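Lecture notes, unit on protein representations.

Consider one protein chain, 286 amino acids long.
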Amino acid sequence: MQDRTTHPEEQPAGPPPGNDPDKPQAFSRRNLLATLGVTAAGGALAMVNYRDDAQAATMSRTASAIADAKAAKHAWCMVIDLRVCDGCKLCTLSCQQRHQLPKEQTWIKVYPMEHEGQTFPMPVPCMMCEDPPCMYVCPVGSTFRTDEGLVLVDQDTCIGSRACMAACPYEARYFNWKEPPPVKKMPLPPTPQMPVPQQKGTVGKCVYCADRLPNGELPACVSGCPMGVIYIGDLVTDVAVNGLGETVVLSEFLHKNDAVRYKEELGTNPRCYYIAGHGQSLGAGS
């Protein structure tokens, strides 16, 4: 692959405060997603209770998109339960370790958020938008969306324009200014599903551990969270599971807990849902 011209600028984002990516962490849970193969009755999103007509319309579009994806066996999403997040950032660290990322790349950031005098941690991975602005602005089509709803980057064709970074309202993309650090020997060459190592002059991002999902394995951030905050879910089978092995009916879980989506008003139709623990707003003004 040809070398790309880069600039000695800082990374778009640094590692979370207090996080030591070099400190070894052991996590024994590697729960399988076999339960995601259970067939659900009805549409997964029909029961989600949104607070206004705009949100209801968005969910209707999402349900229609899933119904139209007849060839897809799954429609992956995430649910993040802020009620039990303590801000430990092990989701960040486990992702970094799994993808052998440099310290400054945090594909799932944990932001300190404030609402009405309260501070709470909020993990932010890629939102896997159904209408991803990053994909629409890529001048060479390196960013693409799979039938199962995963937004990925082909680093073999990426020219490093960084248009996708400017277009992403969630700041979920990172430019590789430098050669990646030495990585452990990998059994297969890098792919968009498992982009290890990263390539200098290209953009990288959270991929939901796309290479694990077909094998029934949890993404690293899900299995690495000791509090069971993050669920990987499937809108087709209507099931979600976290790293503690807790399995829920996805539509009921979202409905009963008034799930919302971050920056819903932007119309990107993200497939990452939040359960707010303190009545906080997750809109653009938060």
